[in-house]
Amino acid sequence: MRVKGVRGKPKKGKRAKRRQRRIKRACFEEGPRFSGAKHTETGWADGVFLHHAGRKDFFDTLRQRETAAFSDILGGIVMKLTWLGHACFLLEEDGYRIVLDPYTGVAGYPPLHIQAHAVFCSHGHFDHHATDCVELLPERESPFTVREVETFHDDRGGALRGTNTVRIFTAGGLSVAHLGDLGHQLTAEQAAAIGPVDAVLVPVGGVYTVDAAGAKAVCDALHPRCVVPMHYHHAPYGLTEVDSVEPFLELWPAEEVHHLQGAAFELTEQTAGVIDRKSVV
Predict the structure, then answer these.
(1) 76 Cβ contact partners less than 8 Å away, ≥ 6 residues apart
(2) Whole-angstrom distance, CA of residue 92 vs CA of residue 86
(3) What's the CA gap between 67 and 232, in Å, rounded?
(4) Which end of the chain is more exposed for a tag (fewer CB within 10 A), N or C?
């Protein structure tokens, strides 16, 4: 197993400090900038926003409203994740864009063409390595640090489908692990190397990856606050031989599953539960 670090945590500049002061004023002095807000002993709240140091009561009604109000207060500096289909995601932080596992030739999904500053692929198969579908933007400093943990695409040590690289992206104090086409349960060493993460993007469809029960066990080993299933069939989208997302969702308490109508959501220190998207970009 190989674990490689990339770059240290970027230093906070004057711009970041100004944004922190703006967040503090919005949260604790001015109050929320949306209607229906009321002040409580723990902060400002209207049923969606409840924020105070030491509390994690944000998104009590995530299934009814996504992140518009919180994004307005924070000035858009939270990490945004957009599911582009299959196992492909767009990560955004402070205007910097990363595409993960770009696909081609996957039934139902439209041809992929997107701009990004960087692209990462978990392995070399066609449905995860279509780098020519990503138009690279001019280079600039990345707010992300990236770590890698080597795993396998099957449960036979790579004998069937080779290796698979798990990557952990960290920015703004938040970490997201993209598990690629993980095909086995993590060893204790691999789980420790991935480390504590806020969100996990996990394949759930089986056949080429872990199935629903296997994906749930992986999540239980990593203990993320937020789980995002990927790499499943939802007609007419996706590989027809793999399973749907429903068997995976059924393994979680219903109150922990949040059904979003869009393809994007914003990850914060309070986002929790299983995020099920009903559409793709």
Answers:
(1) none
(2) 18
(3) 25
(4) N
Q: Are 183 and 153 within 8 A, CB to CB?
A: yes
pLDDT in tens, the chain (281 residues): 333 333 344 445 665 555 555 544 444 333 333 333 333 333 323 323 223 233 333 333 332 333 344 444 444 457 999 999 899 999 999 999 999 999 998 888 889 999 999 999 999 898 898 999 999 999 999 999 999 999 999 999 999 999 999 999 999 999 999 999 999 999 999 999 999 999 999 999 999 999 999 999 999 999 999 999 999 988 888 898 999 999 999 999 999 999 988 889 999 888 999 998 765 55
Q: What is the DSSP letter of 20?
A: H
User: Global pTM?
Assistant: 0.72
Q: Within 37-194, where are the H helices?
A: 68-74, 188-194
Rounded to whole angstroms, how far apart are CA atoms 249 and 277? Answer: 12
Identify the DSSP state of 114. Answer: E
CA distances from 202 to 226, 245, 275 (A): 11, 11, 11
How far apart CA 164 and CA 176 sit, in angstroms, is 17
- Are 141 and 117 spatial neighbours (Cβ–Cβ below 8 Å)? no
Other CB atoms within 10 Å distance of the CB of residue 220 = 10
Phi, psi of 144 (to 5 degrees): -95, 140
Burial (CB count <10 Å: 0-12, 13-18, 19+), residue 133: middle
DSSP classification of residue 69: H
For the chain, how long is the longest CA-to-CA vector? 59
Residues paired with 61 in a beta bridge: none
Handedness of CA 60, 62, 64, 69 (dihedral sign): positive
Beta bridge pairs of residue 147: 5, 168
